[in-house]
Amino acid sequence: VQLQASGGGLVQAGDSLRLSCAASGRTFSSYVMAWFRQAPGKGREFVTKISSSGSLTAYADSAKGRFTISRDNAKNTVYLQMNSLKPEDTAVYYCAARAGAAAWAAITTSPSYWGQGTQVTVSS
Question: Rounded to whole angstroms, what are the CA distances from 16 to 42, 91, 102, 107?
Fold first, then answer.
């Protein structure tokens, strides 16, 4: 599967932004999807994930209460709605995918596919 992330930009603290990740292929609905981010000078970190059906979600503590992941399997797209953005949310955001047994647990540390990343910059 090929992933194309979009929607990043420069916003002010407190603003909202929605990222999208469009996937190619006919089997999108079988993939667990996730968002990661990498801030300048730091490693890539898990942000959130969603099950193949969309019925299950999980968030890193930094995202709880402010970020919402969702997906539209008819459009082969996963979204990340980010509200109340903070300067520390500044990072390149990547979408990721994994299918198969144990994908729900495994995607947090070892996705199978990565998108190219989209820059989010939050000014104070």
Answer: 23, 15, 33, 26
